Amino acid sequence: MKAAPFAYCRPDSVDEAVGVLAGGDAKVLAGGQSLVPVLAMRLGRPGTLVDITRLPGLDALVIEDGQLHVGAAVRQRALERSSLAGAVPLVGRALPFVGHRELRSRGTVCGSLAHADPAAELPAVAACLGASVLVRGPRGERVVPAREFVTGAMTTGLGPDELVTGVRFAVAQPGEGFGFAEIARRHGDFALAGVAVRVRGSSATLAAFGVSDRPVVRELTLDDPTEAGLRPMTDALAHEIVDTDGDAHGSRGYRARLLGVLAARELARAHREAHR
Q1: CA atoms within 13 A on the CB side of 136
Q2: Mean of the per-residue pLDDT values for the chain?
Q3: Most buried among 20, 37, 51, 64, by the most CB within 10 A?
Q4: Boundaries of each FAD-binding PCMH-type domain copy (predicted)?
Q5: How far is CA 232 from each of CA 108, 225, 257, rounded to the nearest angstrom?
Q6: Are 78 and 92 spatial neighbours (Cβ–Cβ below 8 Å)?
C-alpha cells in the first residue's frame, strides 16, 4: 500500500513547528522508522507531516550538569557510536537490541519514546533510569518524567500540539551496576520479554517491557543478590506484572517465565558490577 496524500512542512524553528502542530491534523517526522510504516499501511492519515530533522539545536548530544542530553533529531546509531554513551551504560547496552543497524541509522532516540511501543527498549531504559522528557508546545516547555510519559500502548501524555525536543539521562555514578536483556524470536524482532535494571547497594530498579501495555517499573531490595536467591522473588514479580495476552509467539505464562529468569540473571549481574 501507499500513504494517503499529505502536505509536507519543513519549519525553520521549533516555535514554527509547534505552530503547525497547533493547526491540527499534523504529525512530527524525525527518523520516520515508526511513522512511515504506519502511513504506508494507512493506519494513520495525517494531513501534514512536520519534518524536524534540521531544526537548530535538536541535534544536540552533550553532557551538562551530570546529565546526558539527547536532542530529538539524534539518531540511535549516532548515540550508539558516541563516546558519550559510556556515561549512561544502560543506554549503550540497550541500543544494539533496537531493531537493526539500518533502522538505527535513521531512527531517533526520542522518536522511540514518542512512539511508545510496549515492546520497545528505550522507553523501558528511560523509565528505569528516571529520565526526563522535554516537551515543547504553545504554552512553552515542560519536563515530563519518563515513567509518566508513556500512558499506554502507543500512547503518551504528549498533546497534539506538542513535540518532544529531547530527553535527559542521569550520568552513572560510582557504585552503580546495570543490566539489560531481552528475548526475541530473532535479533531485531519485537521482544517477547525484556528487562532493564539498575542496582546501587542492596537497592534496585527494574523496568520490564514486552509484557504489558507500557514499561512496568518496580523498586526492589536484594536480600540475596545471587541468581538462585533472586529467582523466587523475580518469578513472583513476573506473574504479578505480566498482563499481556498470549499470542502465536508465546503465552502469558511463557512470557512470565522468561521475565523471571531474565530479571534474576540481570539483577545478579548488575549487583556484581556495582560491588566491583
Answers
A1: 18
A2: 95
A3: 20
A4: 1-174
A5: 38, 12, 12
A6: no
Q: How many domains does the chain have?
A: 3
Specify whether 66 is located in the same domain as 158.
yes
Q: Grid coordinates standing for 241?
A: 506484572
The residues, ordered by sequence, that sit 6+ positions from 215 with a Cβ below 8 Å of its Cβ are 123, 124, 127, 128, 147, 150, 207, 208, 209
Residue ranges of the chain with per-residue pLDDT less than 50: none
Residues 75, 155 within the same domain: yes
Please answer whether residues 118 and 80 qualify as being in contact, where contact means their C-beta atoms are separated by less than 8 angstroms: no
Q: Which residues pair with 140 in a beta bridge?
A: 137
Percent of the chain with pLDDT over 90: 88
The predicted-structure confidence for 4-32, as pLDDT tens digits, reads as follows 899 999 999 999 999 999 988 999 999 99
Residue 9 identity: C
Alpha helical stretches, state H, the chain: 14-22, 35-40, 76-81, 89-94, 101-104, 109-115, 121-129, 146-149, 227-241, 252-274
As a whole number of Å, the end-to-end CA separation of the chain is 54
Does this model's pTM top 0.90? My answer is yes
User: Domain range holding 47?
Assistant: 7-51
